[in-house]
Amino acid sequence: MSVERPARVRPAQVILVGNEKGGSGKSTVAMHIAISLIKSGHRVATIDLDSRQKTFTNYIENRRAWAEHIGRDLGVPDMIASWCSQRIRWLTHWLRR
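^ that's the sequence the OP posted. Answer follows.
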């Protein structure tokens, strides 16, 4: 007789990349971290908190479009809109599943 153990729920891990100076490579570093985590088998969701510049959001959208154009799975993180608190709640739920 085997006893099934319930799946262990791991808390979400948060990695924040920030610097007050523009042009310091925050979006590039964040994308490298996200892609390496995806390629390591982790589920990744990202939030771009700079709603004015949207550099990281554009970076992800461009990567997604390029992946579609060349027909390859390049590993693109899910992007969560920072302006929508409902999506933040969804993120918490998504990371726990």
